[in-house]
């Protein structure tokens, strides 16, 4: 019974997507355009150069395209389904999270897991197409592929907890629109979505090392393309694991504090 309830909870937001074909068509079109434009851009940037910032043309293009595909892991339109914590706080429906037998923290985690599995299906499909078309290169070895997979899972856990902190902020501010925009920009910039961090100055790379964003995407993709060698993988995986533990403990503390501040507005 518990497994059934978990499955029903995890599939809520993906079902909203699957029952809206125009939305899925828009996602496919946007993802295709992004991949084509990003690949063309980086091929163009490397047309008159060899290796830059320790990256060859194939490495840079692979990194950039995989970053676009990875962005699909957590890009479901929750707002259209009135499915965000911000909306629940505004309409007062957040109170039902605390009246159900399922604890709110578990409910939130199961919803996120379902979203990420759905997003992973999109990312994996796009990856296989790009791999077959020669847009991205395969991992250097089975060991690299295994380390990349583990690092990607840890990175997504870090990203989940970072986004959870932002959701929990609503218990104190009710609205988090401005914070959401700032965090999304910081996440994309400091994780390598806009450009691989290896192209930024040393001081920027050092500064980003003290923040969790680099662990979400830059580390897994750098391992995949070989910019971070396998010999350094244990250290990078350990750093990611530390961020997961720290953010887990912090969000657990915030859940306990948030329960004391549940209010109903609107509705």
UniProtKB/TrEMBL annotation:
The keyword Lipid metabolism does not apply. This is ABC transporter permease. It comes from Streptomyces phyllanthi. The keyword Transmembrane helix applies. The chain crosses the membrane at residues 117-136, 142-166, 178-200, 237-255. Pfam families: ABC2_membrane_6. Keywords: Membrane, Transmembrane, Transmembrane helix. It comes from the Bacteria.
